[in-house]
Amino acid sequence: MLYEFATLSFHPNDTRKAVAGAQAYVTAAEAKGRLLGSWTTDIGTLGRMFVLRGFSDAAELAAERRRALFAADPFGAAEVLTGLEMDSYAPFPFLPPVVPGNYGKIYEFRTYRLKPNGLPPTIAAWEEAMPARSKLSTLLINMYALDGAPRITHIWPYASLDARAAIRTDAVAKGIWPPKNGPEQLVTATSMIGVPTEASPLA
Fold first, then answer.
1. Domains in the chain: ranges and CATH
2. Can you tell me whether residue 179 is helix, strand or coil?
């Protein structure tokens, strides 16, 4: 499976319009791929919506990308959109595909820009560390970009911000996180907190 991680930007006052338009767009009869989750930002840059979709192969993803690029009303929200980014990703090879379900009330989205040769050692570090880390909390997905700068995006669901802080502190105290030789590959790192939309298959 391949993934598209889209970021819609808009004025915070237009959140309802953006969410409703995007939901209709990605579930339309002509839409390809499968909607996996959608979130609006709660901490970080406000006025953002993240949309995660899964595709069976590169051809299906490319066809849906063309639909957006040539649409008069991309993501059903052209009236309110101030920006639209659509990034293509492949999952880390040792991780299972994303399965919709109820995982947490908040989701953390972390994107790391890597050194030019940083992806292989990053994947190796995560593969070694995740068996122990996954016992503390769920990793929804970690995936690497197929275009643009070398980077990864990983998504973590948590029951609450307090639970997130406690789990991360515990992981560091036990010496199982961060992955050994992982941080050494980073150039920049960003983190944002989002909450699922009402219609998100991931909640």
1. 2-90 (3.30.70.100), 99-196 (3.30.70.100)
2. coil
- Of the chain, the percentage scoring pLDDT greater than 90 comes to 100
**What residue ranges in 44-185 does DSSP mark as E strands?**
48-55, 81-91, 106-114, 141-145, 151-158
Asked if 2 and 141 touch (Cβ cutoff 8 Å), the reply is: no
Query: Over the stretch 176-191, which tens digit does the pLDDT of each residue have?
Result: 999 999 999 999 999 9
**54-58 long-range Cβ contacts below 8 angstroms, 24+ apart:** 54/1, 54/2, 54/3, 54/97, 54/98, 55/1, 55/2, 55/3, 55/4, 56/1, 56/2, 57/2, 58/2
